[in-house]
Design brief:
This protein is of the alpha+beta class and 487 residues long. The chain is built from 15 helices and 11 strands. The structure holds adenosine monophosphate (AMP) and magnesium ion. The site of adenosine monophosphate has 18 residues, from loops.
Length: 487
């Protein structure tokens, strides 16, 4: 046993007691490793054999130096204020410094009740754990900031939801688990001291560049806004719908967090919603930027007393920064979509060219991933495949002619245009029907589908000829129309 291969630090546990509850994971009956993310383990400098992994990442034993805590936070869920949420089924074991010198949170998810569990059992069933594993790692491989999955372990115990399911635990790794909701927790309690300690902690841990600014808290707001604008633009670029964009699921570091009912679109529909609990479409694909902005406005309002003693002045300063979100987001979005069309140069009509394609895609509900990826073949040849996606051949021909004219203005060889297109438009996404398939098979005890999907999604931008069937959208009887929080 190599206990010393992980050196924990517990900077969050050194904050005042009101930031968390000390709580140990609840041991489980029969932990079995389903998957260890060896790449990530190497990056974290973690070397444990399977027996140790099963012991420590199931919560059955505590690693030396770990001071487990459940973090306190609040949040707006679907716009409704909830003064206390907190880690109800997760425990932060501590932080480790990875091989790049970055501090990373190591958290167990599904490891038993905490003082924040309310009516919940603190557990998770196998389905959501495998889902989060596949989706979060796919996001990482697509270059989208995200929490990571280090391991998945089955518990040998049952979890009861609408029926009985096998339990599982995920080891989640994040640059930080501080959320907008963490700030709201202290703000709502008018705990200015707590707020300042939290803001200083976050600046010191993540935004050192703000330390010496004239107004570090205003700079913090700017930085978080920048990260979130970039994050949501990346989601839009790959057709990702988060599904529960509550303030407690909005990371201060700008990582994708909480893979509950999230999903990737197959056919393009800007109003697309998957989550069963999102009945009004609040978190629909196209609403995501506005919602993130709303969440950031909540963050800004928490920071007001730190930004300026004079409330009016603080509001005016913060409002200006929040207002910058829209232009910032737009600038990230258009850069991504230009690249998706193989364009790097900036021309005034680009927005129109992008919108025109999206409109045609929406009319025919073409597959978001295949359509954009198809542009790379089209750049090299007069591919008929691409045109087949569309019903109105006149319109798509006209669009293609405009696009060909526009790519000629890039002054690049066709193969380089195609290369750019392939570098930003994934060939493989974690399609919902594939996720369902791996969960169904895992429930029968067969993890080979889970393994294979992870393997294919390890290189989402590569053409992997032997796995072409993973590119294919669902058959009519495979379509997944709804996703669930799966708690
Ligand atoms: P989420 O929908 O995952 O963002 O969770 C919202 C809140 O519910 C958080 O405070 C979670 O910790 C809590 N929660 C979700 N599932 C459970 C569960 N099975 N047991 C206890 N608390 C839970
Ligand atoms: Mg959450």
């Amino acid at each position: 046993m190599n206990l010393n291969s992980i050196t924990f630090d517990n900077s969050y546990a050194r904050l005042p007691k009101k930031f968390y509850a000390n709580v140990n994971p609840t041991p489980v009956k029969n932990p079995n490793i389903i998957k260890l993310n060896t790449q990530l383990a190497d990056n974290l400098g973690i070397k444990l054999n399977n027996i140790d992994l099963e012991k420590f990442f199931s919560g059955n034993s505590l690693l030396e130096g770990s001071q487990p805590i459940a973090m306190a936070y609040a949040g707006h869920q679907f716009g409704h204020w909830v003064p206390q949420l907190g880690d109800g089924r997760a425990v932060l074991l501590g932080e480790i410094i990875d091989t790049n010198g970055c501090r990373r949170d190591i958290q167990l998810k599904g490891c038993g009740p905490t003082p924040f569990s309310r009516m919940g059992d603190g557990r998770a069933w196998l389905g959501p754990i495998l889902r989060e594993y596949v989706l979060s790692e796919a996001m990482e491989n697509m270059g989208v900031p995200t929490t990571r999955a280090l391991s998945a372990i089955s518990t040998g115990e049952s979890v009861y939801r609408e029926k009985e399911f096998p339990g599982a635990i995920l080891t989640r790794v994040a640059f930080s688990h501080v959320r907008v909701g963490t700030f709201q927790y202290f703000s709502a309690r008018q705990d200015l001291e707590g707020l300042k300690i939290l803001a200083d902690y976050v600046i010191n841990r993540h935004y050192q560049n703000c330390v010496n600014d004239k107004n570090p808290y205003l700079s913090l707001l700017k930085e978080v806004i920048k990260r979130q604008a970039l994050l949501v633009s990346k989601w839009m670029g790959i057709g990702f719908i988060h599904g529960v964009l509550n303030t407690d699921n909005t990371s201060i570091y700008g990582e994708t967090i909480d893979y509950g009912p999230c999903a990737f679109m197959d056919e393009y529909s800007s109003n697309k919603v998957f989550s069963s609990i999102d009945q009004t479409g609040r978190y629909a694909y196209k609403n995501q930027p506005e919602i993130v902005k709303w969440n950031l406005a909540c963050f800004a309002s928490c920071l007001l007393p730190l930004i300026d003693e004079n409330e009016k002045q603080a509001i005016s300063l913060a409002q200006n920064v929040v207002d910058e979100f829209s232009d910032l987001y737009k600038s990230y979005w258009i850069k991504i979509f230009r690249n998706k069309l193989g364009l790097s140069k900036v021309y005034e009509n680009d927005q129109k060219l992008i919108d025109n394609l999206l409109n045609l895609m929406e009319t025919d509900q073409t597959d978001f991933t295949l359509t954009f990826r198809g542009l790379s073949t089209l750049a090299n040849s007069n591919s008929l495949e691409f045109k087949k996606y569309f019903s109105n051949q006149n319109k798509i021909n006209e669009w293609i002619n405009n696009w060909r004219h526009r790519i000629s203005q890039e002054g690049k060889e066709k193969k380089d245009i195609a290369k750019l297109i392939n570098s930003i438009n994934p060939s493989y996404i974690p399609r919902n029907h594939r996720i369902e398939e791996i969960i169904d098979k895992a429930l029968e005890g067969d993890y080979s589908y889970f393994e294979l999907l992870n393997k294919v999604l390890n290189k989402p931008y590569n053409d992997q000829n032997e796995y072409k069937n993973f590119q294919v959208p669902p058959d009519i009887n495979q379509i997944v129309t709804q996703t669930f929080c799966g708690t």
